[in-house]
Amino acid sequence: MKKNKINTEIIVNVHPLEKRVAVMEDNRLVELFIEKRSQQNIVGNIYKGYVKDVLPGMGAAFIDIGLERTAFLHYSDIVLDFLDVFEHEKPSKRLNPADSAKITNLLKPGQEIVVQIHKGPIGSKGARLTGQLSIPGKFIVFFPNKSKIAISRRIYNPAEKNRIRNILNKIRDPNVGLIVRTEAEGCGEEELENEYKAMTKTWRLIEKQLKHAKPPVCIFEENALENFLIRDLFGEHVDKLVIDDKTFARSIISQLEDISPELIDKVEVYKEDTPIFDAWSIEKKIETIFHSRVYLPSGGNIRIEHTEALVAIDINTGSFTGSNSYELTVKKTNLEAAAEIARQIRLRDLSGVIVIDFIDMVSDENKQEVMEMLKTGLHRDRAKSKVYQFTLLGLVEVTRKRMRTTLISNYSDPCPYCNGSGRVISRDAVVMRINRWLARAEYFLRNRVLRVAVHPELMKFIGDHPGFLEYDKDQIDFVEDGGLRVDQFKVYALPQMEDITNKYNT
């Protein structure tokens, strides 16, 4: 039976303080990415740093790369090629992890070193580093100090694997290693060669900077939104890419001209007055990310709870009672839950160990159907995940690689009123809400004088960050209101002090 094609759209909202990318599948929000000017993803960035401290007992060193906390480099992650890379020939010896106590033979405090961030900082822990440098592209990952070609396991056809391998062996430098991404399946020789040349050029620029830059300094930013969008999100499976900023759209098209010119026709510039995320009803969908309970079409629901060690997901039939047997009622609820859980895992970027407590089912056939629904939903996920069969207690365990900071962490701060057990919307996110409210209402309130009431802490934040809000000071007056929460604001139309806040909400 032929599967129905999923209509995929990527919607991009550009603002001086943040860029947001929403991935829509059949008009449902499945992924949301945010790049804040003050909070960028540093995983994959290449740095020239210097050794701060070496701990032979841990077989590790702490490296200063210019971040708030020193980063962690384990002995097993050191690559000899990039130690004093511009003074000596590349050594061929490979390190034995069992010799980690010998790290002092390789690294000394004050020594310069080239590293790449493997895992970002979490809580009080600094970033995890690797000496194995790589540059990811749309079709291939470029390794400047390897010599092998590896091909994605999701390319199943042996003939296609051989075709790609033969093309790359013909165009690559023997001293360069490559990993072929799934996206490369079906690519022509010209496409692969163009990307390889572009990545070679990028590496040469990195080499020049490494020679002359003074540590600590970032040499290469892997996760600049333009790179991420073209490399990981935008492909043949996407029906259109809609951007509300001409400059950003031109930058995307310029890069596509060298790599994937056939995708340029799918890029559209949004020119309407209505904010782009309102036009696609995305703002309303974003609000649900903060709800621990998600409702299912039949009346059941799932509850998502974050703990220190794992994510727990519970399923309930709720108001759904079914019309036949209890087993069929439970099966229908579990099937809906499995599909929605797969979407929420992608949307919220849940990672680590995820434990799902499906409603108990007697039939092994029904259990397998639920498992297949969950696996099918995760098949479109870019992050690596593994789904384990039902345990004796009726639980399903999922492990998923962490791709980025979770949306909840990105959008919120620890709640000061509950000692860290809950969270509230961050102050800059509230200011962005006010910005969007003003943009939404601008057409209808051009000649009105407004008063915006906010919590005193938010008022102080606005005063400390004058560039965060874009408004006419003659038309809008900000005042403090201690009766509001930090995540709340009220808008009044003067002189009658008419509360119009909800009138122009999403």
Q: What do these coordinates show?
A:
The protein has 506 residues and is of the alpha+beta class. It folds into five domains: 8-40 and 238-281, Nucleotidyltransferase, domain 5 (2-Layer Sandwich), CATH 3.30.420; 46-130, Nucleic acid-binding proteins (OB fold (Dihydrolipoamide Acetyltransferase, E2P)), CATH 2.40.50.140; 135-220, Ribosomal Protein S5, domain 2; 291-400; 426-504. 27% of the residues lie in helices and 26% in strands. The chain contains eleven helices and 27 strands. The protein has helices at 158-171, 189-212, 225-233, 246-259, 276-279, 282-287, 326-348, 364-378, 407-411, 427-441, 456-464, and strands at 8-14, 18-25, 28-36, 46-55, 60-64, 71-74, 112-119, 128-130, 135-136, 140-143, 149-151, 177-180, 217-220, 240-243, 267-269, 293-295, 301-306, 311-316, 352-357, 385-387, 395-400, 412-414, 423-425, 449-454, 476-480, 489-494, 498-499. Helix 1 packs across helix 2 (189-212), helix 7 (326-348) runs parallel beside helix 8 and helix 10 (427-441) crosses helix 11 (456-464). The chain is globular and about 75 Å long.
pLDDT < 50 stretches: 85-92
Rg over CA atoms, rounded to whole Å, is 26 Å
Distance between termini?
40 Å
Helical/strand content category: alpha+beta
* Percent range for β-strand residues: 25-35%
**What summary fits the major beta sheet?**
6 strands, antiparallel
* Number of helices, counting only DSSP H or I runs of 4 residues or more: 11
Q: What spatial form do the alpha-carbon principal axes imply?
A: globular
The percent of residues in helical segments reads 25-40%
Quote the average pLDDT. Answer: 87
Count of DSSP E strands?
Answer: 27
Number of domains: 5
